[in-house]
Structure formats: structure tokens, C-alpha cells
Amino acid sequence: MSTTLTACGSKEDVVTHAETEAVYVSVGPKGGPYLKYQVQVSRQLNPGDFQNTAARGDQEKIDPEDSEYLKGIPEDELALTKNPKKPLDDQVYFGVFIQVANDNKQPLKSAALSGFEIKDSQFTEGEAGSEAHVFEPIAALDPADPGNPFLYRQAIVPGATGTGSGYQPLANSPAGSSTTAAELLVFKIPQSDLENRPLVLHIKGVDGGEAEVDLDV
Fold first, then answer.
1. In terms of C-beta distances under 8 Å and separation of at least 24 residues, what long-range contacts does 68-71 make, across chains too?
2. Which of 116, 104, 98 is nearest to 7 (CA)?
């Protein structure tokens, strides 16, 4: 954690690394303004064959809500890599539900979809093969307007009013009024890599600044 002075001289915590979810991390240029990102929850998604209800298989293992989350993403993006010889290396869908808060008076643009990535504990900067331990979110046909109200999109986060912060997603939106009150980043990760803990979500802001969150996998 680092600390910076605000214009009025009081201290404001600028947290850039959270060792667990539900902690706000600040992303923005040095000295601000910052947007605060909070991972509400992360988990494996279990949509089944959501485009073919009759072929979903074991209904007890399928989450109907998860089926809705993946709508709007092209089939080629949704295709999961399988390894018949080592099923634990099969890819699975992994979701990160994230909320953005703006404590500033002025509206600010949130991170682009490309500003997020997950690195597992086997990643070492500059080491050969490390790119296999970096995962980027998959995108809808139009990431700016995915046609699915639950998927994360870059947006203008409203400024704070009174004592209340501005939020993405908006409170009255489908994502904002859901149980997580968050938008969803969808990753494809080999199931075996979920054991390479900690998995760390890295966030890069549009105007600079980075932060990271250790995911509670």
C-alpha cells in the first residue's frame, strides 16, 4: 500500500495491491485522479452447452445464470481447448465480477478490456514459456457494446455526487442490480492452472497506473 496527499492536505490511501478480493485498488496516473476497482467474486463458470438446452448434460452441474453470462461472445472465442490425454489441462471458463467506483467529482473512463489480465504463480517476467501463464479476457463481437448487460465494457464512470461515489455498473442496470452488483470478465484457463495460486488480476488504467488483486480461487 502507498499513501498520497490530497489537495487539502489530508491523507488518502492509494492501494495498488490487494491480497484478497473485496478490497478496492486504485488505478490512475501518479497523483490521481484514481478509479477504484473491486473484485466482488471470482469463480469457475458452468454454463454447459448454453446454445443447445437439450445437450446441456448433467443438469445438476449446470448453472442457468452462467448460461446467460456468455451470450454475445462469438463461438470461436468461446471454444475451449481440450486435452484428451490430460483432462486436467482442459480449459474452463473463469469469471471475475468487478465493480468500479469513482470518488472524484469529474467522470472518468474505466480501463479497456485489454487493460485486464490474469497471471498465475508460474509466470516469471522474461522467462521462456511464461506467456502460457498469462490469460486475457475474451471479448464479445463488439467489446464496447457486447449486447449482454452483464459483460464488462469500458465506460465513463459517473463522478461522485454529495457523499456518494459514482459506480460502474450503474445501480439500476441489470448488472448493477444483480447479486454481485458487478460486471463480468470472462477468461479461458486450463483447469490445472487454477491450482497455480495465487492467480493475480492485473489492471492497467487508460491514463496510466496499475494495480493487482490476488484472486480467491
1. 68/148, 68/150, 69/45, 69/95, 69/148, 69/150, 69/151, 69/184, 69/186, 70/45, 70/148, 70/186, 71/147, 71/148
2. 104
**CA-based nearest residue to 43, from 94, 116, 118, 89:** 94
Which residue pairs from 10-15 have beta carbons closer than 8 angstroms and sit at least 24 positions apart in sequence?
A: 15/211
Q: Which three cell numbers stand for residue 155?
A: 465506460
Instruction: Give the max Cα distance, the chain.
Output: 62
Give the three cell numbers for residue 176.
448493477
Could you give the 3-state DSSP secondary structure of residue 24? coil
- pTM of the model as a whole: 0.87
**Residues, the chain:** 217
How far does CA 50 lie from the centroid of its chain? 22
| C-alpha span between 168 and 28 (Å, rounded) | 16
CA separation for the pair 153, 182 (Å, rounded): 11
Residue 124: its pLDDT value, please?
94
What are 115-141's pLDDT values in tens digits? 999 999 999 998 898 999 999 999 988
The tens digit of pLDDT for each residue in 149-165 reads: 999 999 999 999 988 99
